Amino acid sequence: MAGTRSNLITEHGTRSTLLHEFRTILQPLTLADHFPTPQPLEVELGCGDGSFIVEWAQRNPGRNFLGVERLLGRIRKPDKRGRRAGLTNLSLVRIEIGYFLEYLLPPASADAIHVYFPDPWPKVKHARHRLISERFTALARRALKPGGVVHLRTDHVDYFAQMLAVFRADAAFTEVETPADLAAVTTDFEREFNARGIPTNRSSWRIMERGF
Predict the structure, then answer these.
(1) Is residue 212 part of a domain?
(2) Are 155 and 198 in contact (CB under 8 A)?
(3) Model confidence over 90-133: pLDDT tens digits?
């Protein structure tokens, strides 16, 4: 078992934390340790301050949500927000995103993967560090259930062009319309960029068959 979610209950009847405590990072997660009810799973890679995933989890109580974030200072915010909202369908893990996707997310476990405003690594010499690359689609195929979807957003025009090129080159994925209700739930970065007149570039990609 890769770890357990804290079951400590505060005096107000809420969980003391939504943050998953790893016992080992050498085995895939056991999702039953994260959620009291088996439900379709959506994963946000880089959940930041939780402004998206907390609201989306509130709007979709019939789904489970797993937020992944490397920075402790940021993941404390969705933990606090989720506990305040009394969410039982939200769990959080603090770990490097690439490692999580490749080694810890169980195969064919996710109905949707959200990647919103990842670091664009704008310098040419650093572009190899971008999360959305040729390797990403292979990892997404492994993690998604048949019919699962990857939802992408970025403010960076060059990175968006790379995202489109990467997914268009993978025959397992078909571009689909981003649902309006999903597009309406914004992230902290998105609101900041939009307020400065910088538009959101978004796309969604559905996998019709599972590839490994």
Answers:
(1) no
(2) yes
(3) 999 999 999 999 999 999 999 999 999 998 867 776 678 899 99
